[in-house]
User: Fold NADP-dependent oxidoreductase domain-containing protein from Cyclotella cryptica.
Amino acid sequence: MKMQINQALPKLGLGMAALGRPGYINIGRDDIFGNPDNRSLEKMQQQSDLVLDCLLKNSVGRPWIDCARSYGLSEKFVGEYLRRNNVKPNEVYCSSKWGYTYVADWNVKLEIGSPHEVKDHSVENFLKQIEQTNELLGEYVDLYQIHSATFESGVLDNEDIHKALHKCRKDRGWAIGLSVSSPRQGEILKRAMEIEVDGQRLFDSVQCTFNCLEQRAGPSLLDAHRLGMDVIIKEGLANGRLLKNEVIIEYSNKLSCTPDALALGCILAQNFQPRVLCGSVTPEQLISNMKAVQVAEMLRHDKPLLEEIMGRCVMDSEAYWNERSALEWN
Assistant:
């Protein structure tokens, strides 16, 4: 059985949402990838390989990579890279997600109203997607997560899904988690923490949006941590918005660090002891993101400063998600 997630694991991992497909909502992709029409599969895989090279060379302990069925070809890119470089399953930590299907057909700009990914939290889709994940990444998977669980999708009340996830954990040795989004993240997590199968809590982890701008889920994440769940944070830079935030820039100048390292360090220093996914798409970005570990250590010893930064940055949760929903795929 694979190593369980509550044991010692890397604090920073690489999220593949922005590397596994040509388009994403992170700000400024044209500056790195160029014209959206020229982002071939080969070009994106080469860029993915460069960042994975950097991750494996610079991680302290096991490198951590997070994929999803809907992140384009992320599972294919990662699986092929790891096998090509003869990386053993116990030398890397991999998580992935099911629940969305990528339907953009390697396009960045779609017709108005056409989605890049389609959600389906049915048992049938789970059984289909777990086999797809297993084929592409199987021997490396440590954690399998519901992608963006919501009340509306019915996945939190579907006992057949709960049993199937529980069976996956028993049969494959994969830990089971869920990711959450929207202003209702805390409510969704609270419900998820209550779900049990055969007297055992179903979810081992939660992947949640939390950053200097969006802090609403903090109390629920602390509850999850106290319950023994692994707390994983996504979108720590708010899809790039925090890199241009005046407060973050002001304090990063005062502390002689980069804005990204400060924003991610503020998350790592939280009392719910999170692990954080970076959305780096270049080796240089990844190296800079990794410096957040040192920034977090400083902030843990200066809680008033941490509270000051967080207090000056926080925004209304609904407004945050409205701004996020307005971000264009680029």
